[in-house]
């Protein structure tokens, strides 16, 4: 079974100079940040000490900026410029990874068809999220045949209704916004023949700078003139949820500075704020945690996989359900900041889940 991995890769040049391949430099800078020592970083990256210094000096000459600072008793630290390079790499990864993962899965299918004659795979369409990514990791560990496509929740359930996928991932808020949210998906979900598998409950809220220096408390603060907002793209389940909440609070979109500035993933929103390019965003707590941001919880939501009830015993799909019902995977998801996997693997009808 083929496994394709596509990783973001970028080069940088100044004026007409030869472009610098950032891969080795970023690996070294990350190791320095983690270890506080060039010597230790060289060991971690398996570079010679001389090569590590040469890589740093060549990059510093090109950029015209220092990358490291050293001082007696405090080891080696990264300069603001070097930290900005690492942030840029994290933003590239956060923005592109879902697209590249979907493309890798597509290539796996086509290569399997051509070389091995394989065609049957579990077709999973879902909005991008940390628990979904963890599930795919477990599926790959088990070497189960899967074709993944990251897409908005509404697109996923629409694909299920057209029989273009086997499992469709989508999320619905708990509380007052549950009814209007589920109404958005209802046109594609068949109450008689579809069922739901519970993945997790997760927190959505505001991403703010570390220690919340601007003193944000909730949605009404978003209209403040001193704040720059970064949003999720139109059509995403998180954008839909935010718009429902703003409407419920009587807050007009046009009063929010940066409402039309969008990113494709929760991580990309967090990276944007961590870089200082925005002050606040809206998304899943895990992303804020991973980028060292503050988080103001506003709503909890349930994440489900929809599928035809008739496929619950399908020999392709049953192993995926077994993973979702395993204690080992429940522990993985419970360790994600803001996730609760208590009911993971629970199978319900649509009526049982939403009344």
Describe the structure.
By secondary structure, the protein is α/β, with parallel strands linked by helices. It contains 13 helices and 14 strands. Strands 5, 6, 7, 8, 9, 10, 11, 12, 13 and 14 form a 10-stranded mixed β-sheet that branches. The chain has a two-stranded antiparallel ribbon with strand order 1-2. Helix 8 links the parallel strand 9 (229-232) and strand 10. Helix 1 packs across helix 2 (38-45), helix 2 (38-45) packs across helix 3 (49-63) and helix 4 runs antiparallel to helix 9. The chain starts with 10 loop residues before the first strand and ends with a helix.
Keywords:
355 residues, alpha/beta, ten-stranded mixed beta sheet, two-stranded antiparallel sheet, 14 strands, 21% strand, globular
Low-confidence region ranges: none
| Overall strand count | 14
Largest sheet: 10 strands, mixed
Rg calculated over all Cα atoms: 23 Å
């Amino acid at each position: 079974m083929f496994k394709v991995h596509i990783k973001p890769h970028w080069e940088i040049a100044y004026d007409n100079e030869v472009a610098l391949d950032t891969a080795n430099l970023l690996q070294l800078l990350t190791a320095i940040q983690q270890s506080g020592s060039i010597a230790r970083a060289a060991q971690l990256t398996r570079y010679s000490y001389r090569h590590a210094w040469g890589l740093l000096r060549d990059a510093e000459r090109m950029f015209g900026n220092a990358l490291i600072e050293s001082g007696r008793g405090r080891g080696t630290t990264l300069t603001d410029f070097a930290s900005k390079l690492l942030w840029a790499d994290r933003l590239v990864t956060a923005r592109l990874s879902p697209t590249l993962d979907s493309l890798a899965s597509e290539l796996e299918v086509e290569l399997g068809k051509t070389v091995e004659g394989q065609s049957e795979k579990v077709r999973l369409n879902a909005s991008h999220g940390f628990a979904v990514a963890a599930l795919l990791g477990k599926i790959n560990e088990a070497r189960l045949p899967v074709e993944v496509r990251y897409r908005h929740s509404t697109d996923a359930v629409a694909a299920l209704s057209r029989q273009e996928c086997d499992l469709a991932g989508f999320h619905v808020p708990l509380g007052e916004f549950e009814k209007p949210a589920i109404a958005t998906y209802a046109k594609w979900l068949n109450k008689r023949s579809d069922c739901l598998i519970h993945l997790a409950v997760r927190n959505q809220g505001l991403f703010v700078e570390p220690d919340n220096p601007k003193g944000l408390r909730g949605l009404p603060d978003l209209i403040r003139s001193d704040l720059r907002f970064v949003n999720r793209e139109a059509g995403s389940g998180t954008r839909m949820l935010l718009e429902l909440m703003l409407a419920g609070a009587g807050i007009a979109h046009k009063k929010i500075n940066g409402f039309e500035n969008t990113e494709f993933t929760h991580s990309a929103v967090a990276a944007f704020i961590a870089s200082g390019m925005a002050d606040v965003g809206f998304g899943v707590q895990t992303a804020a945690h991973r980028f060292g941001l503050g988080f103001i919880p506003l709503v909890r939501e349930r994440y489900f996989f929809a599928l035809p009830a008739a496929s619950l015993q399908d020999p392709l799909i049953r192993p995926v359900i077994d993973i979702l019902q395993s204690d080992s995977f429940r522990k993985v998801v419970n360790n994600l900041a803001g996730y609760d996997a208590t009911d993971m693997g629970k199978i319900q009808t649509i009526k049982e889940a939403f009344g």
